[in-house]
Amino acid sequence: QVQLRESGPSLVKPSQTLTLTCSVSGASIIINNYNWGWLRQPPGKDQEWMGAITASGDTYYSPAFKSRASISRDTSRNQFALHLSSVTPEDTAVYYCARAPSDARRPEEYNVWGQGTQVTVSS
Q1: Taking a C-beta distance cutoff of 8 angstroms, is the pair 17, 80 a contact?
Q2: Helix (H, G, I), strand (E, B) or coil at 6
Q3: pLDDT tens across 68-100, in order?
Q4: Phi, psi torsion values for 111, nearest 5 degrees
Q5: What is the distance between the alpha carbons of residues 12 and 119, in angstroms, rounded to a whole number?
Q6: How far apart are CA 118 and CA 87, in angstroms?
Q7: Does residue 111 register a pLDDT over 90?
Q8: 69-74 sheet: strands from edge to edge
Q9: In terms of Cα–Cα distance, which of 114, 42, 52 is closest to 81?
Q10: Residues 97, 34: contact at Cβ < 8 Å?
Q11: Which value, in Å, is the radius of gyration of the alpha carbons in the chain?
Q12: What pLDDT is stored for residue 32 in this prediction?
């Protein structure tokens, strides 16, 4: 059974780069057509899709985050990571990694989720 687990800092200062890692077990991130994505939910708001990486390593992003976000992967550790630069307090949210069966740009298209990790941006 595939499981995803997010890890990273819970508190980040404004202007810093936030890096979160998703560790995947029970499935390889480099096989099949699965897409591996990052999403978030700010307090009181809907979930937002940020971007994703395909099994072949291609990345694609929401226009809202394209200028600040990048997704990388470490295939030897079966992990993928989100890097979000120039964070502000508006980036405070619960961040999730998730898997979709193919290209996916909406939260409802992801059917396997990590438990989420709270990130607060504050000085």
Answers
A1: no
A2: strand
A3: 999 999 999 999 999 999 999 999 999 999 999
A4: -115, -5
A5: 7
A6: 14
A7: yes
A8: 3-7, 18-25, 79-84, 69-74
A9: 52
A10: no
A11: 13
A12: 86
Encode 61-122 in three state secondary structure: ECCCCCCCEEEEEECCCCEEEEEECCCCHHHCEEEEEEEECCCCCCHHHCCEECCCEEEEEC
d(CA 91, CA 88) in angstroms, rounded, equals 6
Q: Supply the pLDDT for residue 23.
A: 98
**Alpha-carbon span 17 to 12, nearest angstrom:** 8
pLDDT tens profile 28-75: 999 889 999 999 999 999 999 999 999 999 999 999 999 999 999 999
